[in-house]
Request: fold
Amino acid sequence: MTDPITTTGPDPQTAGQRVCLLGATGTIGRATARALVARGHDVVCFVRPRAPHRAGSAPADPGLGAGTTLRWVDPTDPVALARDGFAGERFDAVVSCMASRTGEPGDAWAIDHRAQVHALEAARASGVQHFVLLSAICVQKPLLAFQQAKLAFEAELIASGLRYSIVRPTAFFKSLSGQIDRVRQGRPFLLFGDGRLTACKPISDDDLAAYVADCLTDEYRWNRVLPIGGPGPAITPRDQGEALFALLGQAPRFRSVPVRLLDGIAGTLAMLGRIVPALAAKAELARIGRYYATESMLVLDPATGRYDAAATPETGTQTLMDHYRAVLSGERTTERGDHSVF
Reply:
């Protein structure tokens, strides 16, 4: 097991920065906003209205809380981003938690690449010195459109001349919470294969947000690609199911789903997508599901082609079991988003 990541504490020269936060309305984005405010930064959130609104009217409050300033701006529009977002003002840093909602190719290249490029260009014009990017650990083995789009932007950021921190987290708690209600209702936990095909070191929103926020002041994290997981050990889907049953006081019940079923679904949708374009996007979603069913969210050893739990850094204190307990007790709810396999 790797040693937990620790921070050396804020540098007075880098504390209290003026920070542009992109992707602030997602679960990680909201947690990152809180973490940045708690560290004394001046946080300006560029928020994209999700529905058209009349000129002069304000969109619904995204619930980012005290200590943040909101600016309503479409990050896919470079003119609006510069005019209404950065507005000719100086910022010290950009923290981008922005990501495509579905992972479909069109959405991925529009958000994970082009919108990020627009933000990078506007940031440089505003005197930004540091760009912190929330990426994903799965880009180590890029078989999907959204992974390729993320990697393409990572390369542009590294070549930009700005100080950068590229954070590649493992699985989020919300992506591993889709079967809580199923198990609570007495139904079996679904597994691909025997449930031991993959493993991860899940990380909570708050622990990841703290890690991202501290990239601004921890010099060790500057100009680096940073894979990161929550506190170990690595766990498999079968481990997750057994833990849920134990918390509910139930005997474990599993049902295996063959991976070839996803192959068949993806292949059929891809074939039909030649006739009905909307089905081509569905085929990509099936491929995303297959990827997460067969690939671990851990550091990939390029020499062996194997995932290495021991080489996957850890941070934070919150475990997936803590999260399951909180959800089962009603203390917490889970926003699962568009990428959930179950």
